[in-house]
Amino acid sequence: MKFVIYYRVSTRSQGESGLGMDAQKAYVQHFINQESIVQEFTEVGSGKYMDCKNRPQLCKAVDLCKTKGYTLVVAKIDRLSRKTEHALEIYSQLDGRLQSCDIPNLDKFTLTLFMAIADRERELISIRTKQALAEKKKKGIQLGKPSNFTNKGRAKGRAANSKIAATKKANVQAQELCILYNQKGFTLRQIANKLNHNGYKTSRGKEFKPTTIKRLLERA
What we know:
- There is one protein chain.
- By secondary structure, the chain is an alpha/beta fold.
- The protein has helices at 12-17, 21-31, 56-68, 77-80, 84-93, 108-138, 151-183, 188-197, 210-219; strands spanning 3-9, 37-44, 71-74, 98-100.
């Protein structure tokens, strides 16, 4: 069986820094024989779009698989799409030749189930947030600072939120990489060196040490 690998990061900064991409490649290397990989495609863009204008690399990867009968592989299913209908459409186009390293033995049922759960969780988060804000407003609590209502304030808030989200995501990826490297037989020091080399930092913004890696593995 021959494989085509598709990688996606959501922001250009992730693509340039390697954060996110390194974790995806580690997943693929752990599950897929490198000699079976015929081509890799890398995309920087949002998972909510599926058209070829916004996701040209995905279109190329799918077309290659359809033409040659290859199997499309993603590290995690959300790298393919964040919408259930989009993921199922690709699954159908490829006659089921789709694999995701985070979902063993992927079939149409498990794909639908995992995507639906992710969709529902996003909906619930949105509902809970709106309900909490509405309740505060009902109590007369002023939401936000007046200074944040300016264009400059909004831009500053978006930048801060993006930084927090990126840091949290990078920490999760670092822990996932620790697990994968540990399964491959890497020593604690080798894992720490690998993460530091690829630009990962601890939650406190410091370099990883063997003791830090040990704690991460114990919490996993």
